[in-house]
Design a protein that fits this description.
Length: 282
């Protein structure tokens, strides 16, 4: 695995090739922290931190990990920092079938199955679908076959004109929500793949007949959250969503796994989902 971290990394801000000092400075800039603020939080002198960032001092392995923790650097990128500083990566990225992840996989399965009759799905850091329960799969039906072939990107599926986009009644509001969420992920992770997805989604056309979005400030004034409003043969279904992650993950793949559960936003939606699930169970 170490070879995967041996390539040269460049600053998302300057485009310059980065050493360990440059990488730390880049992450500090992303977190909008001064040297003094990070030094105080990490319990290290500002002078020492300045020397590390300028290349005049080499940080210990423990110092790299301490700074990465204070900067909330994703586990995948913490390995990058370690390699840049001359140390071996410490965080593993196990395969989905690794025995060590069995309990986590069972937990995800229990969440998905236990959430019936409502939709729920699991995805990775790039929004690649890992698993979904039957109600979620049912709502995906009707999208172009190419969008449903693995690997399925759940955001592309929802916003693509050949995906669910024509069936999302509040498409403009939902797209704004998705793009805002992506921007936050990009800010937190500096992930180039997410940048590409964001730019791709921005290029998608608005479906014909899509209703206007909410005026600025209206969402905060009139609603508690942005729902997903999906047009179906059974009428318009409205869902609110929650996201669950493993808060104590030490494995890279587990730290990047998320489960999204959709809850009915009204009784009509709840009744339809119950009826569909009962029919599917026979």
């Amino acid at each position: 695995m170490a070879s995967g971290y041996g390539r040269r990394y460049r600053s998302a801000m300057t485009g310059d090739a980065l050493s360990i000092g440059g990488l730390l400075r880049d992450w500090r800039g992303r977190r909008r922290l001064s040297q003094l603020a990070l030094a105080v939080d990490a319990e290290v002198s500002q002078r020492h931190l300045s020397f590390i960032e300028s290349g005049r001092a080499a940080p210990s392995r423990e110092m790299v990990l301490r700074l990465a923790e204070r900067l909330a650097v994703p586990l995948r990128e913490r390995n990058v920092l370690l390699v840049a500083a001359g140390y071996a990566p410490v965080y593993r990225e196990r395969g989905r079938d690794d025995a060590a992840l069995k309990a986590a996989g069972e937990a995800v399965g229990a969440i998905l199955n236990g959430h019936r009759p409502h939709p729920a799905l699991a995805f990775d850091r790039h929004w690649t679908l890992r698993s979904a329960n039957t109600p979620a799969t049912r709502l995906m039906a009707g999208a172009a076959a190419t969008l449903l072939e693995p690997p399925v990107n759940v955001l592309r599926l929802s916003l693509h004109p050949d995906g669910l986009a024509p069936r999302i009644a509040n498409f403009r509001d939902w797209r704004d929500h998705v793009l805002t969420r992506l921007e936050r992920q990009i800010e937190a992770s500096a992930d180039a793949v997410l940048v590409g997805l964001r730019d791709e989604f921005k290029s998608y056309p608005v479906p014909p007949g899509a209703r206007p979005g909410r005026p600025a400030g209206a969402a905060a004034r009139d609603a508690v959250a942005v729902p997903l409003e999906l047009l179906t043969e059974a009428g318009t279904l409205r869902f609110l969503s929650t996201t669950t992650v493993f808060g104590t993950a030490l494995d890279i793949s587990l730290s990047e796994l998320a489960v999204e559960c959709f809850f009915p936003a009204d009784e009509g939606t709840a009744a339809v989902m119950r009826a569909l699930d009962e029919a599917a169970r026979g």
